[in-house]
Design a protein that fits this description.
9-stranded mixed sheet; two-stranded antiparallel sheet; globular; homodimer; 6 helices
């Protein structure tokens, strides 16, 4: 069965986005600093329709993730652009453009049923109104023998963590203290799953920490 | 001038101790898990009066810290044993025993003036009642050409971070989600200092991440 993975950039003080997310700053104040390591990489630029880029160890980490991912699950706000002008338009899909960077089927958690939208380059958006586990089931069917990646935002990620749904977690730890923002783990309390330490790859701009996630009592 | 360093074990979700610290569990519930990597190391066992132990890469990290440290600064609760029976006894010094593991001069931040206490093996306790910067000044004088290490607890550590006093930070990141406890960084807000990524050493049980800390506007 496809594994459920989370690959996410985090500051040393545990934030995955800065405070005050807006349309102009979808990652919040300072949030771009968490992702600086990725923007120049060939493996990130290519799915975004950009040529060139660096081909270092960080590049291989991203390429590996892309190769392994067969479907994506995301929350509605990440899909439609956070608190932007589309916030209250359930039919909005403008955020990621006509040629989105995913290039695989994307399953969007929402309360608003609508038809599947097919975009260029292999991306489709399927809207799932009956919860995370239903979305995962559809995503697993679409992923074939590849992984299903949770893309975000924080609410969906924490839901997966707390429900013991994740199989694998890879933190891209940025050497930054944001001071405030959206916390990845917050205080999970007794829902915090057990981790198994995996591969560590360090570059001058980021440290990639991989963990296996033990299935909790509440896992399906 | 001696550099001010912080070497501290932290969970992936940012805790340096678990919740509900007591005399029996000075590191809080689950807090021992942050330090499991250290207890078996020869370089940790020796200053604690124990023989033997492992001599792996983690051992060298601890040995390096001990060699580099000429004086220690700590808070009164760490000195006297947290919320134990000594909590309300300003003259208590029972927590670390007659042969404490520090083996250098220790400067204790307190509101209660008392005479310096000299223990076995090179440890002395000097009580400083006029604040962190006065304690650092005395510790720097005692450290010679070595570093001054902030030992904890969290209050003193955050005070140093917020005031831009630290020169160097080394996080020993344990592959553990504690779920709750004492947060190292909490939300530092605008006081969050800039970091400079340094050496990363990964072992199966812990990842050592070193950072330079830029001096903030509020630094002396």
């Amino acid at each position: 069965m496809p594994r459920l993975t989370l690959d996410i950039s985090m500051s040393l003080d545990g934030f995955i986005a800065g405070p005050n997310q807006t349309l102009e700053q979808p990652l919040g104040e300072g949030g771009d600093r968490l992702h600086e390591w990725v923007f120049g990489l060939a493996s990130w630029r290519k799915p975004h329709g950009l040529s060139g880029g660096e081909t270092n160890a960080d590049n291989e980490i991203v390429a590996e993730f892309i190769r392994a991912t067969g479907a994506v699950v995301m929350g509605r706000r990440m899909f439609s652009g956070g608190d932007g002008p589309w916030k209250d338009d359930p039919n909005a899909d403008g955020w990621w453009g006509d040629d989105p960077p995913f290039h695989v089927p994307v399953f969007v958690l929402t309360h608003h049923a609508r038809e599947t939208v097919t975009k260029q380059g292999g991306t489709s958006y399927t809207f799932v109104t009956d919860g995370i586990e239903a979305a995962l089931e559809q995503a697993r069917a679409a992923a074939g023998d590849k992984n299903v990646a949770v893309a975000g935002g924080a609410t969906v990620v924490q839901q997966c963590l707390k429900a013991g749904l994740l199989d694998e977690l890879q933190i891209h730890l940025a050497p930054v203290l944001l001071g405030d923002g959206v916390s990845l783990f917050d205080r999970l309390g007794a829902d915090a799953p057990e981790l198994e330490a995996g591969r560590v790859v360090a570059s001058p701009s980021v440290t990639h920490l991989r963990f296996g996630v033990a299935k909790g009592a509440s896992a399906p």
